[in-house]
């Protein structure tokens, strides 16, 4: 039986990408309960392949005992597009189907977050200034419609 493909999601961080991996489901049942691959094998190996304009690089094989887990790939060039594919294997089963390639530019989410915060801050400051000017106008401090009484001139 072949293992895979795992479910892979990729998000970017500053000069890194976060790869979230969900192990493939098994079709084995025990007492009407669907067994996970961890139930069956206790521990699985996974290998992430990183692809960029520089080529394809296999990362060191790691082990997991969790159904859903994350791996962070650091020291990447900002704004460069990176793609990852993950393959899962067990000590007793080396037949694996790799995940589809998932791509994301490094650092894009981090910078987008800063732009959103800056825009929200600018809108809030504008609303505060507009409110203050409205209060000053209502209080008669500027743009008065009626002339002042002669005693105040």
Q: How would you summarize what this structure contains?
A:
The chain is of the alpha+beta class.
Structural class: alpha+beta
At the fourth level of CATH, the homologous superfamily of the largest domain is Immunoglobulins
Number of helices: 2
- What's the helical proportion of residues? 10-25%
Nearest-angstrom radius of gyration? 29 Å
* The CATH topology of the largest domain: Immunoglobulin-like
Class of the largest domain, according to the CATH hierarchy? Answer: Mainly Beta
Beta-strand residue fraction: 25-35%
Describe this structure in words.
Residues 3-104 form the Interferon/interleukin receptor domain. One of its GO terms (molecular function) is interleukin-22 receptor activity. It comes from Sapayoa aenigma (broad-billed sapayoa). By secondary structure, the protein is an alpha+beta fold. It folds into two domains: 7-106, Immunoglobulins (Immunoglobulin-like, Sandwich); 112-147. The protein is built from two helices and ten strands, in the order ββββαββββββα. The chain has helices at residues 37-41, 108-138; strands spanning 7-13, 16-22, 29-30, 33-34, 44-52, 55-58, 62-64, 68-73, 81-89, 102-105. Strands 5, 6, 7, 9 and 10 form a five-stranded antiparallel beta sheet that branches. It has a three-stranded antiparallel beta sheet with strand order 1-2-8. It has a two-stranded antiparallel sheet with strand order 3-4. β3 and β4 (33-34) form a beta hairpin. The longest helix has 31 residues, at 108-138. Residues 108-112 have low confidence and may be disordered.
